[in-house]
Design goal:
The chain is mainly α. It folds into 2 domains: about 150 residues, no CATH class; about 70 residues, no CATH class. It contains 11 helices and no strands. Helix 1 runs antiparallel to helix 4 and helix 8 runs antiparallel to helix 9. The radius of gyration is 31 Å and the shape is elongated. The termini are far apart.
Length: about 240
Protein backbone atom coordinates (compact mmCIF):
# COMPACT_ATOMS: atom_id res chain seq x y z
CA UNK A 1 0.00 0.00 0.00
CA UNK A 2 1.33 3.43 -0.91
CA UNK A 3 1.95 5.89 1.89
CA UNK A 4 0.65 9.36 1.07
CA UNK A 5 3.09 12.21 1.51
CA UNK A 6 2.55 15.89 1.06
CA UNK A 7 4.44 17.25 -1.92
CA UNK A 8 6.18 19.69 0.40
CA UNK A 9 7.03 17.18 3.17
CA UNK A 10 10.61 16.34 4.04
CA UNK A 11 10.06 12.60 3.62
CA UNK A 12 8.77 13.09 0.12
CA UNK A 13 11.92 14.88 -1.03
CA UNK A 14 14.13 12.36 0.80
CA UNK A 15 12.43 9.52 -1.04
CA UNK A 16 12.82 11.34 -4.37
CA UNK A 17 16.56 11.86 -3.69
CA UNK A 18 16.99 8.20 -2.74
CA UNK A 19 15.18 7.09 -5.92
CA UNK A 20 17.38 9.32 -8.08
CA UNK A 21 20.49 8.02 -6.32
CA UNK A 22 19.45 4.39 -6.78
CA UNK A 23 18.76 4.88 -10.51
CA UNK A 24 22.09 6.64 -11.05
CA UNK A 25 23.94 4.08 -8.96
CA UNK A 26 22.36 1.15 -10.84
CA UNK A 27 23.20 2.86 -14.13
CA UNK A 28 26.83 3.35 -13.09
CA UNK A 29 27.17 -0.30 -12.07
CA UNK A 30 25.56 -1.47 -15.31
CA UNK A 31 27.78 0.78 -17.43
CA UNK A 32 30.95 -0.26 -15.58
CA UNK A 33 30.04 -3.92 -15.98
CA UNK A 34 30.07 -3.46 -19.74
CA UNK A 35 32.88 -0.89 -19.90
CA UNK A 36 35.39 -2.55 -17.57
CA UNK A 37 34.64 -6.21 -18.25
CA UNK A 38 34.88 -5.73 -22.01
CA UNK A 39 38.55 -4.68 -21.67
CA UNK A 40 41.00 -7.57 -21.67
CA UNK A 41 44.14 -7.41 -19.56
CA UNK A 42 46.22 -7.59 -22.75
CA UNK A 43 44.48 -4.52 -24.21
CA UNK A 44 45.03 -2.56 -21.00
CA UNK A 45 48.70 -3.58 -20.77
CA UNK A 46 49.25 -2.51 -24.38
CA UNK A 47 47.60 0.85 -23.70
CA UNK A 48 49.59 1.29 -20.47
CA UNK A 49 52.87 0.79 -22.33
CA UNK A 50 52.31 2.26 -25.79
CA UNK A 51 49.09 4.28 -25.79
CA UNK A 52 48.72 8.03 -25.78
CA UNK A 53 49.75 9.80 -22.55
CA UNK A 54 46.09 10.07 -21.49
CA UNK A 55 45.37 6.41 -22.31
CA UNK A 56 48.48 5.31 -20.40
CA UNK A 57 47.29 7.16 -17.31
CA UNK A 58 43.77 5.72 -17.57
CA UNK A 59 44.98 2.17 -18.19
CA UNK A 60 47.39 2.34 -15.24
CA UNK A 61 44.48 3.26 -12.94
CA UNK A 62 42.18 0.54 -14.26
CA UNK A 63 44.64 -2.38 -14.37
CA UNK A 64 44.79 -3.02 -10.58
CA UNK A 65 40.99 -3.03 -10.42
CA UNK A 66 40.42 -5.33 -13.41
CA UNK A 67 43.13 -7.91 -12.59
CA UNK A 68 40.72 -9.89 -10.39
CA UNK A 69 38.01 -10.04 -13.02
CA UNK A 70 35.57 -12.36 -11.29
CA UNK A 71 35.75 -10.40 -8.01
CA UNK A 72 35.07 -7.18 -9.91
CA UNK A 73 32.21 -8.76 -11.85
CA UNK A 74 30.55 -10.09 -8.70
CA UNK A 75 30.91 -6.71 -6.96
CA UNK A 76 29.34 -4.76 -9.83
CA UNK A 77 26.47 -7.21 -10.24
CA UNK A 78 25.73 -7.34 -6.51
CA UNK A 79 25.61 -3.53 -6.29
CA UNK A 80 23.49 -3.28 -9.43
CA UNK A 81 21.02 -5.90 -8.19
CA UNK A 82 20.80 -4.27 -4.74
CA UNK A 83 19.98 -0.88 -6.27
CA UNK A 84 17.35 -2.30 -8.64
CA UNK A 85 15.69 -4.32 -5.85
CA UNK A 86 15.61 -1.34 -3.50
CA UNK A 87 14.08 1.05 -6.04
CA UNK A 88 10.50 -0.39 -6.01
CA UNK A 89 10.51 -0.28 -2.20
CA UNK A 90 10.91 3.49 -2.13
CA UNK A 91 8.63 3.99 -5.14
CA UNK A 92 5.92 1.94 -3.45
CA UNK A 93 5.76 4.50 -0.66
CA UNK A 94 4.91 7.23 -3.19
CA UNK A 95 2.68 5.51 -5.75
CA UNK A 96 0.59 2.39 -6.09
CA UNK A 97 2.18 -1.04 -6.43
CA UNK A 98 1.59 -1.34 -10.17
CA UNK A 99 2.79 2.24 -10.63
CA UNK A 100 5.97 1.48 -8.67
CA UNK A 101 6.68 -1.52 -10.91
CA UNK A 102 6.00 0.43 -14.11
CA UNK A 103 8.10 3.44 -13.08
CA UNK A 104 10.99 1.34 -11.74
CA UNK A 105 11.15 -0.76 -14.91
CA UNK A 106 11.09 2.38 -17.08
CA UNK A 107 13.73 4.17 -15.03
CA UNK A 108 16.03 1.15 -14.82
CA UNK A 109 15.66 0.28 -18.50
CA UNK A 110 16.31 3.82 -19.76
CA UNK A 111 18.60 5.43 -17.18
CA UNK A 112 19.98 2.27 -15.59
CA UNK A 113 20.76 0.17 -18.66
CA UNK A 114 20.48 1.73 -22.13
CA UNK A 115 22.07 5.16 -21.60
CA UNK A 116 24.88 4.08 -19.19
CA UNK A 117 25.91 1.11 -21.32
CA UNK A 118 25.87 3.21 -24.49
CA UNK A 119 28.10 5.84 -22.87
CA UNK A 120 30.47 3.37 -21.18
CA UNK A 121 30.87 1.28 -24.31
CA UNK A 122 32.33 4.38 -25.98
CA UNK A 123 34.12 6.09 -23.08
CA UNK A 124 34.70 3.11 -20.82
CA UNK A 125 38.42 3.76 -20.40
CA UNK A 126 38.04 7.35 -19.19
CA UNK A 127 34.99 6.63 -17.01
CA UNK A 128 36.57 3.53 -15.51
CA UNK A 129 39.73 5.44 -14.61
CA UNK A 130 37.69 8.25 -13.02
CA UNK A 131 35.64 5.98 -10.76
CA UNK A 132 38.39 3.42 -10.07
CA UNK A 133 38.87 4.57 -6.42
CA UNK A 134 35.10 4.33 -5.83
CA UNK A 135 35.03 0.84 -7.36
CA UNK A 136 37.81 -0.25 -4.98
CA UNK A 137 35.68 0.87 -2.04
CA UNK A 138 32.75 -1.15 -3.40
CA UNK A 139 34.97 -4.21 -3.81
CA UNK A 140 35.97 -4.06 -0.15
CA UNK A 141 32.39 -3.37 0.93
CA UNK A 142 31.02 -6.38 -1.00
CA UNK A 143 34.07 -8.55 -0.28
CA UNK A 144 32.38 -10.94 2.21
CA UNK A 145 29.78 -11.93 -0.39
CA UNK A 146 31.63 -11.32 -3.66
CA UNK A 147 34.90 -13.07 -2.73
CA UNK A 148 33.47 -16.61 -2.17
CA UNK A 149 31.46 -16.37 -5.40
CA UNK A 150 34.50 -15.12 -7.33
CA UNK A 151 36.65 -17.98 -6.00
CA UNK A 152 33.99 -20.44 -7.11
CA UNK A 153 34.02 -18.88 -10.58
CA UNK A 154 37.84 -19.03 -10.61
CA UNK A 155 37.63 -22.74 -9.79
CA UNK A 156 34.96 -23.53 -12.37
CA UNK A 157 36.00 -21.20 -15.21
CA UNK A 158 39.65 -20.42 -14.51
CA UNK A 159 41.26 -17.25 -13.21
CA UNK A 160 40.86 -15.35 -16.44
CA UNK A 161 41.11 -15.53 -20.19
CA UNK A 162 44.06 -13.84 -21.87
CA UNK A 163 43.10 -12.85 -25.41
CA UNK A 164 46.34 -13.40 -27.31
CA UNK A 165 46.30 -13.54 -31.12
CA UNK A 166 47.59 -16.44 -33.17
CA UNK A 167 49.83 -15.82 -36.20
CA UNK A 168 46.98 -15.92 -38.70
CA UNK A 169 44.93 -13.54 -36.55
CA UNK A 170 47.91 -11.17 -36.22
CA UNK A 171 48.32 -11.12 -40.01
CA UNK A 172 44.66 -10.22 -40.45
CA UNK A 173 44.97 -7.54 -37.75
CA UNK A 174 48.00 -6.06 -39.52
CA UNK A 175 46.07 -6.03 -42.80
CA UNK A 176 43.23 -4.13 -41.14
CA UNK A 177 45.75 -1.53 -39.91
CA UNK A 178 47.10 -0.95 -43.42
CA UNK A 179 46.14 2.31 -45.09
CA UNK A 180 44.91 0.35 -48.10
CA UNK A 181 42.19 -1.33 -46.02
CA UNK A 182 40.33 1.96 -45.68
CA UNK A 183 39.80 1.61 -41.91
CA UNK A 184 42.00 4.51 -40.86
CA UNK A 185 45.21 2.51 -40.40
CA UNK A 186 48.62 4.12 -40.77
CA UNK A 187 50.72 1.17 -42.05
CA UNK A 188 51.86 1.35 -45.67
CA UNK A 189 51.66 -1.54 -48.12
CA UNK A 190 55.40 -2.26 -47.76
CA UNK A 191 55.15 -2.28 -43.95
CA UNK A 192 52.21 -4.70 -43.92
CA UNK A 193 54.03 -6.94 -46.44
CA UNK A 194 57.20 -7.02 -44.33
CA UNK A 195 55.29 -7.73 -41.09
CA UNK A 196 53.21 -10.47 -42.74
CA UNK A 197 56.37 -12.02 -44.20
CA UNK A 198 58.09 -11.99 -40.81
CA UNK A 199 55.10 -13.78 -39.25
CA UNK A 200 55.36 -16.50 -41.91
CA UNK A 201 59.11 -17.13 -41.50
CA UNK A 202 58.68 -20.01 -39.07
CA UNK A 203 56.50 -21.83 -41.62
CA UNK A 204 58.92 -21.38 -44.54
CA UNK A 205 61.79 -23.62 -45.64
CA UNK A 206 64.94 -22.66 -47.49
CA UNK A 207 63.41 -24.10 -50.66
CA UNK A 208 60.58 -21.54 -50.48
CA UNK A 209 63.02 -18.62 -50.36
CA UNK A 210 65.86 -19.80 -52.61
CA UNK A 211 66.18 -20.50 -56.34
CA UNK A 212 66.97 -24.15 -57.31
CA UNK A 213 70.50 -24.74 -58.60
CA UNK A 214 69.10 -26.16 -61.83
CA UNK A 215 67.57 -22.75 -62.64
CA UNK A 216 70.60 -20.68 -61.74
CA UNK A 217 72.90 -19.12 -64.35
CA UNK A 218 76.46 -19.77 -63.14
CA UNK A 219 79.93 -19.08 -64.45
CA UNK A 220 82.90 -21.40 -64.27
CA UNK A 221 85.46 -20.12 -61.82
CA UNK A 222 88.18 -20.33 -64.50
CA UNK A 223 86.10 -18.54 -67.16
CA UNK A 224 87.70 -15.51 -68.77
CA UNK A 225 85.85 -12.28 -68.05
CA UNK A 226 85.86 -10.91 -71.60
CA UNK A 227 83.29 -8.91 -73.58
CA UNK A 228 81.33 -11.97 -74.66
CA UNK A 229 80.99 -13.18 -71.07
CA UNK A 230 79.95 -9.72 -69.90
CA UNK A 231 77.28 -9.57 -72.60
CA UNK A 232 76.04 -13.00 -71.51
CA UNK A 233 75.83 -11.88 -67.88
CA UNK A 234 73.88 -8.78 -68.86
CA UNK A 235 71.57 -10.86 -70.99
CA UNK A 236 70.78 -13.28 -68.15
CA UNK A 237 70.09 -10.47 -65.71
CA UNK A 238 69.84 -10.95 -61.97
CA UNK A 239 67.44 -12.57 -59.54
CA UNK A 240 64.67 -10.49 -58.02
CA UNK A 241 63.72 -13.15 -55.47
CA UNK A 242 63.15 -11.86 -51.96
CA UNK A 243 63.36 -13.73 -48.68
CA UNK A 244 59.97 -12.40 -47.68
Amino acid sequence: MAVEYSCCSTNFFIHILIIVFLVLFAGLMSGLTLGLMSMSLVDLEVLAKSGTPKDRKHAAKILPVVKKQHLLLCTLLICNAAAMEALPIFLDSLVTAWGAILISVTLILLFGEIIPQSVCSRYGLAIGATVAPFVRVLVWFCFPVAYPISKLLDYLLGHGHVALFRRAELKTLVDFHGNEAGKGGELTHDETTIIAGALELSEKTARDAMTPLSEIFSIDINAKLDKNLMDLILEKGHSSDSLL
